[in-house]
Amino acid sequence: MNLLVRLGAWSLGSMQRLGRGSLFLLAVLWRLPGALVQFRLLLGQLYSVGVLTVQIIVVSALSVGMVLGLQGYNTLVDFNAEASLGQVVALSLVRELGPVLTALLFAGRAGSALTAEIGLMKVTEQISAMEMMAVDPLRRVVAPRFLAGVLSMPLLAALFSAVGVFGGYLAGVGLLGVDGGAYWSQMQAKVDFYGDVMNGVVKSVVFGWVATWIAVFEGYDAPPTNEGVSRATTRTVVHTAFAVLALDFVLTAIMFGN
Amino acid sequence: MNQQRILELSVGAFVAVGLAALLVLALKVSNLAQVNRDGGYHLTARFDNVGGLKVRSPVTIAGVRVGQVSDIAVDPQTFEAVVQLVVSSQYRLPTDTSAQIYTAGLLGEQYVALEPGGEEEYLQDGGEIRLTQSAIVLERVLGQFLFNKAAGE
Predict the structure, then answer these.
(1) Using CA atoms, how far apart are residues A120 and A138, in angstroms rounded to an integer?
(2) Are residues B18 and B50 in the same domain?
(3) Number of A–B residue contacts, CB under 8 Å
(4) pLDDT (tens digit, 9 = 90+) per residue, A5-64?
(5) With an 8 Å Cβ cutoff, is A149 touching chain B?
(6) Looking at the structure, do residues B18 and B69 belong to the same domain, yes or no?
(7) A83 at the B interface (CB within 8 A)?
(8) Into how many domains does chain B fold?
(9) Chain A within 8 Å of B65 (Cβ-Cβ)?
(10) Chain B residues touching A155 at Cβ < 8 A
């Protein structure tokens, strides 16, 4: 009995949050043109959301690419097919690892910071103060951050894939002695621009949208206490990971499932 | 340089690096820069069996890639496979060109090999290659071999 009550409360609560989140998204989208006009605010957010994330993206992409190169080589060499290494590395990065890992790193590096920042603005009553001064906090605080996240994600994902391919080259060609010409030519022969690269870009746009939405909503919706902000920050990372991985399956099924 | 300039500079560099990465993916990693996007001209070839040939499989002359397979369908009347090929327009092929489906290596992918003949006239856009040789299906070859063995004894 008690269990059923809890289950009911939980489902009602999550439905309510989903509804509030959707209304919040609509309200932010309505203010996006305003955010484009306030170029200074957008620039600052592009810096803290995009530029500061480049470092972790480049380092992770390089190591992921090199590991792919090493592991792919070990598997392919059994079939005398190590010339296909470039194709393996590029396809796994461009289709899956680039967009997904970038979204997960983005949630950890930029999403959590967005949630904590907006949540703390609520705790210190800066949001209320803005409302008192007839400044729309959604337009001034949330919209530029949302737009910066949505714009940054595809660029970061493209950077991840390109650096990863280079990392695979370093490991495969530099370390293990795969033929460099074969690495690039096999890759170019098998990676299709529209079918593979552009689908990866579409994925990263969707992930950027979802990751930033979750981050700003959790911050704006956080209970204005210390504990509330810390929980909201954790929820941002966990929920983004769930949402990105689930969406990735759906998108992959649509794009590559024929 | 003041704070604002540094901010603008770093965001500009970020956007430029991101776009450059996309450009690398387009030109260096994927096939956007290759011949098969220049349009080329279409040819049709009919095969009894295409084996594992797929759309986007390579079309080669003397082992050099000159185009790709753009469509594979079955003719509802004759039940032959109708394969559409796109060949780069810099290669003009005589009308008695023949087409074979080969496999690259034992486990490799299948491709269409064109062998130009000696005719004076050239195939036009939409033309048909009449001399074709189907893919070799390993099971069928093995079956034939066993059948011949059994028949010989």
Answers:
(1) 15
(2) no
(3) 86
(4) 999 999 999 999 999 999 999 999 999 888 888 888 899 999 999 999 999 999 999 999
(5) no
(6) no
(7) no
(8) 2
(9) yes
(10) 14-15, 17-19, 21-22
